[in-house]
TrEMBL record:
<feature type="transmembrane region" description="Helical">
    <location>
        <begin position="135"/>
        <end position="162"/>
    </location>
</feature>
<feature type="transmembrane region" description="Helical">
    <location>
        <begin position="383"/>
        <end position="403"/>
    </location>
</feature>
<dbReference type="Pfam" id="PF00939">
    <property type="entry name" value="Na_sulph_symp"/>
</dbReference>
<comment type="similarity">
    <text>Belongs to the SLC13A/DASS transporter (TC 2.A.47) family. NADC subfamily.</text>
</comment>
<protein>
    <recommendedName>
        <fullName>Sodium-dependent dicarboxylate transporter SdcS</fullName>
    </recommendedName>
</protein>
<feature type="transmembrane region" description="Helical">
    <location>
        <begin position="92"/>
        <end position="111"/>
    </location>
</feature>
<feature type="transmembrane region" description="Helical">
    <location>
        <begin position="345"/>
        <end position="363"/>
    </location>
</feature>
<dbReference type="GO" id="GO:0008514">
    <property type="term" value="F:organic anion transmembrane transporter activity"/>
</dbReference>
<feature type="transmembrane region" description="Helical">
    <location>
        <begin position="277"/>
        <end position="299"/>
    </location>
</feature>
<dbReference type="GO" id="GO:0005886">
    <property type="term" value="C:plasma membrane"/>
</dbReference>
<keyword id="KW-1133">Transmembrane helix</keyword>
<feature type="transmembrane region" description="Helical">
    <location>
        <begin position="224"/>
        <end position="248"/>
    </location>
</feature>
<dbReference type="InterPro" id="IPR001898">
    <property type="entry name" value="SLC13A/DASS"/>
</dbReference>
<keyword id="KW-0812">Transmembrane</keyword>
<dbReference type="GO" id="GO:1905039">
    <property type="term" value="P:carboxylic acid transmembrane transport"/>
</dbReference>
<feature type="transmembrane region" description="Helical">
    <location>
        <begin position="415"/>
        <end position="443"/>
    </location>
</feature>
<keyword id="KW-0472">Membrane</keyword>
């Protein structure tokens, strides 16, 4: 019997391996052979080549990972002379988004290493409000993960909260298979996704569409404008999420009455100088980003200056300060350690490749966006702006449940924004915000995001439960983005 199970597992692994290899072959066929497919009127062989690279890279990123494949993406675009080497590096690795993320990942790393992130999490669940009852505790605990992930990587935020949750389960005698811990672990994975959609701070998925819009339409969406829409829609999604849990999932929360959250706070060491300094620098950087989007209305000259320095330079200054300030003879941030252990280089290279791929796809000389617009415009020309937004958000969020967030943000921006510009009745800045937020709405399958994969592989969560409640929340997200997000964004960005 044991041998049979092992054989079945081996066949399943071999099947997945063979399928992935097959898809890689298909991907290479698109990349290197698609230019030989006869081009329809309006397109050229170079256009077909670029379409082949686009489709092939989307497949490769899904079936071969995001490492060497990202280097391949940038290489073939130069090899086929779609862009020059200088253009590729300017659009990708030299783009300000990667510099911004590089610095912010280092700051987030120090927040985790000093214990500041854990302290914020424990403070949130050991306050008087959280102790009022089981459901209040659950709401505060899960919302704390939303708050933290709004300002740091959703994966990092999840890894702060899971050990706290497992300590809670251990103290209450809860085991894998019980509905309450399943709800909490799945809830944490969903909530960090909600939080990551709220602000562009440290979130590449949000930043990429905003960067594309500034490049293509010269429309700049500042941190504050995006965050108003992201926070408003995110809070509504969180409220719907808690209502689904309370009235449809309906776990037995009685064990939480016996949990003493003050014990966690009592076990915290006194706050260190390193934590205080890190917190001060972190808050200062965020305040500068907020001021960049608001002070121009009051003090135009100062506002223009602050806007001219961009979002990356304040983060750089934050890193510099943390490296310069010493506590007990050591810098708060060790630059070498933070840059090697705190920065996910695979992610940065992937982001660079995505930026290059999008820049190549929308080049006027290829005519791809004009061709797509010509084909699709007759279909959607009779759509009201609301119907257009509703259909776009439904497709984005539903497909996002199974495909990488960055890929979906890139694909939908590349397809929808040129179309919206020609239709004339769509606020493209508002639509870009919705694409940026909606690309983070992934809650129903492990492949959709790393947090969902961690939850799915933890042993605490039944994947059927994840799919059922994740899809329900995704549909709610579509409606919230369409009915609330778009009108609010249109009002802010007229």
């Amino acid at each position: 019997m044991q041998t049979t199970v092992k054989q079945a597992n081996s066949r399943a692994i071999l099947g997945r391996f063979n399928f992935n290899k097959l898809m890689q072959v298909v991907s290479f066929a698109f990349i290197f052979l698609f230019r030989f497919v006869p081009a329809p009127a309006g397109l050229t062989a170079d256009s077909m080549q670029m379409i082949g690279i686009f489709v092939g890279m989307l497949l490769l990123w899904n079936f071969a990972g995001i490492g060497w494949t990202s280097l391949l993406c940038m290489s073939v675009i130069v090899l086929f002379q779609i862009m020059t080497q200088a253009e590729v590096f300017a659009s990708g690795l030299g783009n300000w988004v990667n510099s911004f993320l590089y610095a912010f990942f280092m700051i987030s790393y120090v927040m985790t290493q000093t214990g500041l992130s854990k302290r914020i999490a424990i403070w949130s669940v050991s306050n008087k409000l959280a102790s009022r009852g089981p459901w209040t505790f659950i709401i505060v605990f899960l919302f704390a993960s939303v708050f933290l992930s709004a300002f740091m990587s959703q994966t990092a935020a999840l890894l702060v909260f899971i050990p706290i949750a497992e300590e809670l389960f251990k103290e209450l005698g809860l085991k894998k298979g019980d509905r309450l811990p399943q709800m909490i672990i799945l809830g944490l994975a969903m909530c960090v996704g909600i939080g990551s959609s709220m602000t562009p701070i440290g979130h590449a998925i949000v930043l990429i569409p905003l960067t594309f819009l500034a490049r293509d339409a010269h429309i700049n969406i500042d941190v504050l404008s995006y965050s108003i829409v992201g926070i408003a829609t995110g809070l509504l999604v969180f409220i719907v999420f808690m209502l689904i849990y309370k009235f449809f999932y309906r776990p037995d929360v009685k064990p939480l009455r016996n949990f003493n959250a003050q014990k966690l706070r009592a076990e915290l060491p006194p706050i260190s100088r390193q934590e205080k300094i890190t917190a001060a620098v972190f808050v200062a950087v965020i305040v500068i980003w907020i001021i960049q989007g608001t002070i121009g209305n009051i003090l135009p000259d100062i506002g223009a200056y602050l806007s001219s320095i961009g979002n990356a330079i304040p983060a750089f200054i934050g890193v510099i300060l943390l490296c310069l300030i010493n506590v007990d003879g050591k810098p708060v941030m060790d630059f070498k350690t933070a840059s090697t252990q705190g920065v996910p280089w695979n992610t940065l290279i992937f982001n660079a490749a995505v930026l290059v791929l999008s820049a190549a796809l929308v080049q006027d000389k290829l005519g791809i966006t004009k061709y797509f617009t010509k084909i699709v415009r007759p279909i959607v020309s009779d759509f009201s702006s609301f119907l257009f937004i509703l259909v776009a958000m439904f497709l984005l969020v539903m497909l996002k449940q199974f495909i990488s967030s960055t890929i979906m943000a890139t694909v939908f921006y590349s397809l929808l924004i040129p179309l919206a510009l020609t239709l004339g009745n769509i606020n493209v800045a508002a639509l870009t915000i919705l694409i940026a937020a909606g690309a983070s709405y992934a809650w129903s399958t492990p492949p959709s995001t790393i947090p969902m994969a961690l939850a799915g592989g933890s042993g605490w969560v039944d994947l059927k439960v994840m799919l059922r409640y994740g899809l329900a929340l995704a549909l709610a997200g579509v409606l919230i983005l369409s009915f609330v997000g778009y009108p609010l964004a249109s009002m802010i960005l007229k």
